[in-house]
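Memo to structure team: turn this sequence into structure tokens by end of day. - J.P.
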Amino acid sequence: MEGRVVVRIVIQEDGQIVSAAITKSSGHNVLDQAALETLRQASPIALSQPLDKSSVTMQIPLGYYLDR
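Reply from structure team:
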């Protein structure tokens, strides 16, 4: 399986990811779930600068491709 997943995340000012949702599916549930789990494990995100707001929403693309 290969594919690209786009996940929308909301990050709080302390770097915690408070929500994550698929905005564009790869077409494979297992890849979509792997993308969500990857981002959950990345929380909290080490921020190099403080956020200007209490939270920020971002869209993160994650690609899953086989070596050829």
